[in-house]
């Protein structure tokens, strides 16, 4: 028996690494452990355990013997058991003995500095002005009259140009994702940009440069007959 030993000191409320001289008697050790664990000397039971599985090796039951008598090894655990858990040390971990602070709703409402007063002053939560609440988003517009096969006229940016055709597709597409509905139109004349396919994906079939995809708000469904070349003649 010589030198010192490093062990883990463990109790109900503490766990730490400590180094002790092996010549220290158990009585002297308990005096030091009282300052570490808060457990009075008279309430301590010391048990040497294997750290890896908690198996008890021996009890340090003789106050007169030195610590080295029990052959402690580095990094073993010295378990300090409180024989009187209702005593001064145990009272600090027993929350049932703590008097709770309670405040009635009426008393809380009278306080000037509280979360309740802050919410009232800033109109948060249930104190918000209904008129200032964020309105629900408007539902997306629907176009029940735009159906495949319907005749239509498409709004044109060129004044006097009438783009008429037939609805060939209504729905979402692989291009322009996240923008909602697209209408595929087969024009009567070559006003389009495709043949019903875009980026290698076919949505409908029509002659080249007769197909186009437009937003539904630009489409008007109705009795739109094809425009004849003769309709532009002023004289017969």
From TrEMBL:
GO cellular component, one term: cytosol
Domain Ubiquitin-like: 5-87
SMART domains per record: CAP_GLY (SM01052), UBQ (SM00213)
BP GO annotations: cytoplasmic microtubule organization; post-chaperonin tubulin folding pathway; tubulin complex assembly
CAP-Gly domain boundaries: 180-215
Cellular compartment(s): Cytoplasm
Main localization of the protein described in the UniProt heading: cytoplasm
Keyword terms: Chaperone, Cytoplasm
Record's keyword annotation contains DNA repair: no
CDD domains linked: Ubl_TBCB
Gene Ontology MF terms in the entry: alpha-tubulin binding; microtubule plus-end binding
Xref: PROSITE patterns: CAP_GLY_1 (PS00845), CAP_GLY_2 (PS50245), UBIQUITIN_2 (PS50053)
One Pfam family it belongs to: CAP_GLY
PANTHER family listed in its UniProt record: DYNACTIN 1-RELATED MICROTUBULE-BINDING, TUBULIN-FOLDING COFACTOR B
Family to which this protein belongs: Belongs to the TBCB family.
The protein, known as: CAP-Gly domain-containing protein
Source species of the chain: Calocera cornea HHB12733
């Amino acid at each position: 028996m010589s030198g010192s030993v490093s062990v883990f000191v463990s109790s109900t409320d503490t766990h730490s690494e400590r180094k002790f001289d092996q010549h220290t008697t158990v009585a002297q050790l308990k005096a030091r452990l009282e300052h570490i664990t808060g457990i009075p000397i008279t309430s301590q039971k010391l048990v040497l355990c294997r750290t890896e599985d908690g198996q008890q090796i021996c009890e340090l039951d003789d106050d007169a013997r030195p610590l080295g008598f029990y052959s402690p090894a580095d990094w073993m655990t010295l378990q300090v058991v409180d024989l009187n858990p209702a005593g001064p040390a145990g009272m600090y971990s027993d929350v049932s003995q703590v008097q709770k602070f309670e405040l009635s709703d009426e008393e809380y409402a009278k306080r000037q500095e509280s979360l309740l007063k802050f919410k009232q002053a800033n109109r948060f939560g249930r104190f918000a002005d209904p008129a200032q609440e964020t309105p629900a988003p408007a539902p997306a517009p629907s176009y029940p009259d735009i159906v495949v096969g319907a005749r239509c006229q498409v709004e044109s940016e060129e004044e006097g140009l009438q783009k008429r055709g037939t609805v060939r597709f209504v729905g979402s597409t692989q291009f322009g994702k996240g923008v909602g509905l697209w209408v595929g139109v087969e024009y009567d004349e070559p006003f389009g940009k495709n043949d019903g396919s875009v980026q290698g994906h076919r949505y409908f079939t029509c002659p080249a440069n007769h197909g186009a995809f437009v937003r539904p708000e630009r489409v008007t469904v109705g009795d739109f007959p094809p425009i004849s070349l003769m309709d532009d003649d002023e004289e017969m």
